[in-house]
Amino acid sequence: MVLAVTSNWGSSFTESGTIPNTSGYGVSGWQIELDTANTIANVWNAMIVSHLGNVYTIANTASNAQIAAGGSMSFGSEVISRCPAAAQRTRTEAGQLILLAWPDGLPLAP
User: Fold this and answer.
1) Residue 80: how many other CB atoms lie within 10 Å
2) Cβ of 21: how many Cβ atoms within 10 Å?
3) Distances from the Cα of 60 to the Cαs of 34, 75, 76, 88, in angstroms?
4) Minimal CA–CA distance to 36: which of 96, 103, 104, 101?
5) Do residues 93 and 64 lie in contact, with contact meaning Cβ atoms separated by under 8 Å?
């Protein structure tokens, strides 16, 4: 997964995330875990399903659960920064991608 800052206002910023599906199979359902000291105030093309400590779990919406084999899905977020300088960098491998199921609904093997 790649997160890139798209706008920066010092005390807050927006970023876009791209989730690639590098497998040979389509997936139905995804979520990522982001560990950040910043506050994620808003997301689009995704939803925050939990926030415990510094860890946010962000998941698909009903309209973007499917990621075709070799395809990708993008989402965005508005972040209130505790460290404005951190917003200057592009973060790669910023989160752990968890694919939830194959398109037929069968869960992925552990």
Assistant:
1) 12
2) 19
3) 14, 9, 12, 27
4) 96
5) no
Name the residue type at position 96. Q
| 84, 10 contact by CB (below 8 A) | yes
Rounded Cα–Cα distance for residues 3 and 15 (Å): 6
Q: Which of 87, 86, 75 is nearest to 7 (CA)?
A: 87
Whether 30 contacts 104, CB under 8 Å: no
| pTM value surpassing 0.85 | no
Domain ranges of the chain: 2-99
pLDDT tens digit string along 71-109? 999 999 998 876 544 444 333 333 444 444 444 444 444
Residue with tokens 């997160």: 3
Domain 2-99 has CATH 2.60.40.290: yes
